[in-house]
Specification:
The structure is a homodimer of 344-residue chains. By secondary structure, the first copy, chain A, is of the alpha/beta class. Chain A has 13 helices and twelve strands. In chain A, 51% of the residues are buried. Chains A, B: GO terms for molecular function: DNA binding.
DNA sequence: CTGTTAGCGCTTTCAG
DNA sequence: CTGAAAGCGCTAACAG
């Protein structure tokens, strides 16, 4: 393979091939490819033609090596398969649109060990910033993030000791609000359905919020079913509600760690001929599409998943642009609100 | 900024910094970082220590420039927010695990124009292979893919003129099978609910299959509701079934382009006091989690979304490894099967 | 097992 | 507006 590409090999053409064909230098081609740089329109036209004839596509890896800007932003979410987090990912990509920044997305399956691996894998690509879900990381993961020298945004949570910037809300407070809202409605005997381990930080915070709110109200917070490895599925929600009704048949309302398990519980109740909310009320968390559409429609907590992503990405681009670190607010609190529907 | 990094600046340390600190050459550091290369354990230990002290992370962009292997695989799906496609994405990442290949994921929002942009954006990163959803692309997109000189895998479909390799199934045949299965069960008056435009290729193929099967059976294929821009939502499914029952009150079974719209239709029927399947039967497509869990449980077509991703990634890695192009089978057909449940 | 040299394809920087 | 030289951080290839 000669250095001079003859266009007949399968080797991809380089910028030099384009330059030669257009009768200019590579530098001029580089300029023509970048917005807002001054190239005479005649030259630009010749270059464009050469690019099309050759089927040239810019090699950005090479470019970023010399410009020291990769154009990557990394984001790590627990699951790609959960519409709450994929809404956040959508928010990020949408906010990145037009900035020339491209998203490098990874998911951890709710494992901090996997998160640590991902952090390293992504940092090898030299992203210009990184967006994480939650504030729990391995010590090594945390150290890598701190030393990376790029803006770090933790989302979906309010970490006690943020690494850098935060866009999130308190999952505990959100669950407390749900409990209070339902208590005000007259419910007294509350149950909670969630996953078993502490793997899902946000899940355990919601459970803690549940307990806190009931204790404050002087109500029992014992009715807690922990079932299945988070994230718990619809089917597991169905099984959990059965356990709950066996152990505590007088439960008035079952709060679930997410709408998905709540939906499973709701359907299972119907299958068993229980009327919701008359025999048992059910509420979820997350305001997934399903909550608004199921029958009866589900009471839940809306947490603006898309907005979390959008704001995280905005904060990131602002921080990247504002050379001086720390320009945007360090913490952005995103809203949550209880959506009362027919299931309670 | 001097070339020699003193560790006190915010500049990220380079391999040379590590080498100097460990008293070896950069090349040895490079070797120590790569699996299966021979470095004495004493040297390796010094290097490892230097890496930890410095918090060094390999710069893969630089590495790929010289090794001419980026370690990227690109995948483009219609929506990240749809569990069918995110299952495919999961299948891809899982199959890529341990290969040293990293996924570059993008979504098109069901727009071929957006797909074209994404193809170019991804090719700029010089992926070693690319996985697409469906066989419809813009002419320019197709040309770029053909000229990229990397394996291309089209999935979720059986394109008439594949660019390269295919892992998919015929959406039309799958829908025909559903119609036949239900006709065998005695249903005669079939309705179809799907989106309006041809944006969603797989959606229109399913509709075409619906029509074909009914014509073959000598049954009417007129009851078609086209409602909403694909992908149609649960809520739109709910509205569509209402229209259908207004226009053709004698419809016996409503087939929906996906489980999501089918679920919306199912819930709406319950809301209106219609018994499913007695008053009207409903079937979906995709076998989403919700189909197995809703009440009544939904009849649908399972299409092995995860397996499509897994097999596509396997075919890709095989093709990348087998230097000689075209080693694996060009077309892998993935299975589909009708899952009969309570809704029909 | 380790080092040296060269260069991947582009952009920065400086000249013209 | 355009070009030439240098080099980004790493690894291939070869030498020892």
């Amino acid at each position: 393979m000669t250095k001079i590409n003859d266009g007949k090999t399968t080797e991809a053409p380089t910028m030099n091939d384009v330059a030669r064909r257009a009768g200019v230098s590579a530098m001029t081609v580089s300029r023509a490819l970048k917005e807002g740089s001054h190239v005479s329109s005649a030259t630009r036209e010749r270059i464009t033609r050469a690019i099309n004839e050759l089927g040239y596509v810019l090699d950005q890896s090479a470019g970023s090596l010399s410009s020291r800007r990769t154009g990557f932003v990394a984001a790590i979410i627990p699951s790609i398969n959960n519409s709450n987090f994929s809404d956040t990912a959508r928010g990020i990509t949408d906010a990145l649109e037009g900035t020339g920044l491209q998203l490098l997305l990874g998911y951890t399956n709710y494992s901090v060990e996997r998160e640590e691996e991902l952090i390293e894998a992504m940092l090898r690509r030299r992203p210009e910033g990184i967006i994480l879900t939650g504030g729990s990381h391995t010590p090594k993961g945390r150290r890598m993030l701190e030393q990376a020298g790029i803006p770090v945004i933790e989302t979906w949570d309010r970490p006690a000791q943020p690494i850098d910037k935060v866009v999130g809300f308190s999952n505990g407070e959100a669950m407390e609000l749900l409990v209070e809202t339902l208590a005000r409605k007259g419910y007294r005997r509350f149950g909670y359905i969630g996953g078993v381990t502490a793997r899902d930080t946000r899940g355990s915070q919601r459970r803690a919020g549940f307990v806190r709110a009931l204790e404050r109200l002087g109500l029992s917070s014992d009715r807690v079913i922990s079932f299945g490895v988070p994230p718990i599925s619809m089917e597991q929600g169905a099984q959990a509600v059965v356990s709950m009704l066996e152990r505590w048949p007088d439960t008035q309302v079952a709060l679930c760690v997410s709408d998905l398990s709540a939906f499973g519980a709701l359907m299972e109740c119907q299958r068993r001929g229980l009327k919701v909310p008359q025999d048992i009320a059910i509420a979820g968390f997350g305001d997934y599409e399903i909550a608004a559409c199921c029958h009866p429609r589900m009471t839940t907590v809306n947490v603006d998943c898309y907005g979390i992503g959008r704001q995280a990405a905005l904060k990131l681009t602002q921080t990247i642009q504002a050379q001086s670190p720390g320009t945007p607010e360090p913490v952005t609190l995103t809203g949550f609100r209880v959506i009362e529907r027919e299931s309670t």
